[in-house]
Amino acid sequence: MSKIIIGRYIPGNSIIYKMDPRGKIIAAFFFIALIFLANNWITYSLITLFTFAAVFATKLKIKTFWQGVRPLIWLILFTSVLQLFFTTGGKVYWHWGILNISHYGIENSIYIFIRFVMIILMSTVLTLTTTPLEISEGMEWILTPLKYLKVPIGQIALVMSIALRFVPTLMDETVKIMNAQRARGADFNDGGLVKRAKAIIPILVPLFINSLTIAIDLAVAMESRGYREGEKRSRYRVLKWSQYDWINFAFFALLTVLLLIFRNH
Amino acid sequence: MTKQIIEVENLSYKYKDATDLALKNISFKVQENQWLSIIGHNGSGKSTLSRLLNGLLVPEENPDTKIVIDGLELNSENLWKIRDKIGIVFQNPDNQFVGTNVQDDVAFGLENRNVPRSEMIKRVDAALSAVGMQSYKNAEPQMLSGGQKQRVAIAGIIAIEPKIIILDESTSMLDPEGRNSILKLIRKLQQQKGMTVISITHNIEETLHSDDILVLDSGKKVAQGKPEKIFSNMEMIKKAGLGLPFIYELKQELSKNGVEIPSDVSTEEKMVEYLCQLNSKM
Q: Distance between CA atoms of B205 and B247, rounded to whole angstroms?
């Protein structure tokens, strides 16, 4: 389980860590839009360079990023290969039935490949350098306008932060339950897929019951500490913009301008 | 003249789907700045009682029932004012930790009361230093021991500055060291801030230092009084399914052997002193 890098935070101390989560989330979404501005070799190179610059700026090991891309690499290659064989136009190099390899096909499949990899790398930069709580707080800020549509943003954010807070607690519970069952002879590591899946059920049932107990206890504690649903609450944690966010936005503005100039070249 | 801070009259409670009442016609009073211990075996209604006091549970309908906290009668109008006056430290350290780290958790009650942020920062800092946890400000719950988490829970309560603190078996999941340090801390806060303490406990030894003890048995109040009085009534204690504290057990065994110990010898230190004096006389 620890191999999955998507959505995992790794503590660090580079400039990207000091940026405000709101700025990082907005930038990451903006980047996805920006990538569609690229339409030729120069612009794609710019996007690639920019992404690698961001990756290096995190000061994390490159291997970590590779772990982020790896689980998706077959999906990406499959999509690229489809592009390669089914896109027509330009000089045709090879042709068999409906399949053909053309100049455009080669170009397009490489573009698609770059697009996917860059989007994954950029979102990995975001999730590796931002704690889940920060992301949820950033999202809360970004979604604030929905308040006017009567969406209970504050409550959703509280639910998110409590959920994140209890992930380690539930992990501990799981380990406890598994150990209790191992002590009585349960085996979680042997057997085929079906047998292993069946071994999970006796873990899930007590885990589910335990989490309900925790939820009830927590609700009682929250209420006795004065929590009132829908009531206005002040905030202890606040997000602060810093100079690093302006640097971040300046780089993105520069990238946008460069892309706009070179896309018509 | 001490002020009466809690007054409960004819309080009964029945859980949904239960046939018997969990609490039967309980009445008692607590004076300000006192330490009241509530003891009783499992299912005697101790925790139910604490939850009724701050309106987490609603008592059985009865015109004679009255709960008055610091001059305010508990009703739907006063409910939130009363919750400002009572803080409860629950049993499980993990299941009452709401914030993602220590300072967030302490701030939770303040956020609920819409306290401005600048004020919150001051109060969180003050509360954390009162419980000796200021150096753990940014620690996440999984990095803390049970005793430390209970300290944080206490900090979250004193940040609200309540008059009454209820310990609902708060030390039962802690090791002896954690338990002692929490009790010491509460005693210090009781003296410094003039708080009233209600301690619901299984641990008979914990009640020795209290001013007053309330004994519950199957939802009924069987006795209330000073520890000396309660623990000299062997029959009642046995009937309530409880044991005697070590010191009283020792007294009894000694009196069986013809050594009578005066009733004002009520703590271990006093007992040691008395026995030493007795020894030198002989």
A: 9
- A204-213: pLDDT as tens digits: 999 999 999 9
Q: Which residue of A has its CA nearest to B111?
A: A234
| Cα end-to-end distance, chain A, whole Å | 46
pLDDT > 90 in chain A, percent: 49
Report ipTM for this prediction.
0.86
pLDDT in tens, B224-276: 999 888 888 888 888 888 888 888 888 888 888 888 888 777 777 888 888 88
pLDDT score of A1 more than 50: no
CATH of domain B4-243: 3.40.50.300
- pTM of the predicted model as reported, rounded to 2 decimal places: 0.82
Report the residue of A165, A224, A239 to disrupt the B interface, i.e. the one with the largest count of B CBs within 10 Å.
Answer: A224
Q: Where in the sequence of chain B do the CATH 3.40.50.300 domains occur? A: 4-243
Cβ contacts from A onto B, under 8 A? 89
Quick check: A2 pLDDT over 60? no
Mean of the per-residue pLDDT values of chain B: 89
CA distance B69 to B5: 6
CB contact under 8 A, A236 and B96: no
Q: Give pLDDT tens digits for B45-74.
A: 888 998 999 899 999 888 888 899 999 999
**Cβ <8 Å between B114 and A236:** no
A244-251 LR contacts (CB < 8 Å, sep 24+): A244/A15, A244/A18, A244/A19, A244/A20, A245/A19, A245/A20, A245/A23, A247/A15, A248/A19, A248/A23, A248/A24, A248/A27, A249/A23, A249/A27, A251/A50
Contact residues of B toward A, CB < 8 A = 51, 54, 56, 80, 83-84, 86-88, 90, 92, 94-100, 103-104, 107-117, 120-121, 124, 140-142, 156-157, 160
A164 contacts B98? CB cut-off 8 A: no
- Residue A102 pairs in a beta bridge with A92
Both tokens assigned to B55: 């309106």
Q: Which of A159, A236, A238, A239 to mutate to test the interface with B (most CBs of B within 10 A)?
A: A236
Q: Do A221 and B98 touch (CB under 8 A)?
A: yes
- What ranges do the domains of chain A cover? 15-131+241-262, 153-224
Q: Nearest Cβ partner of B113 from A161, A172, A226?
A: A226
| 3-class DSSP assignment, residue A100 | strand
User: What digits encode the pLDDT tens for the residues B164-205?
Assistant: 999 999 998 888 888 899 999 999 999 999 999 999 988 888
Interface test with A, best of B56, B112, B140, B166 (most A CBs within 10 A): B112
Give A26's contacts (C-beta < 8 A, 6+ positions apart).
A142
Verify whether the Cβ–Cβ distance A227 to B142 is below 8 Å.
no
Report CB contact under 8 Å: A223, B56.
Answer: yes
User: Does A12 score more than 50 pLDDT?
Assistant: yes
- CA distance to partner chain A, nearest, from residue B5 (Å): 19
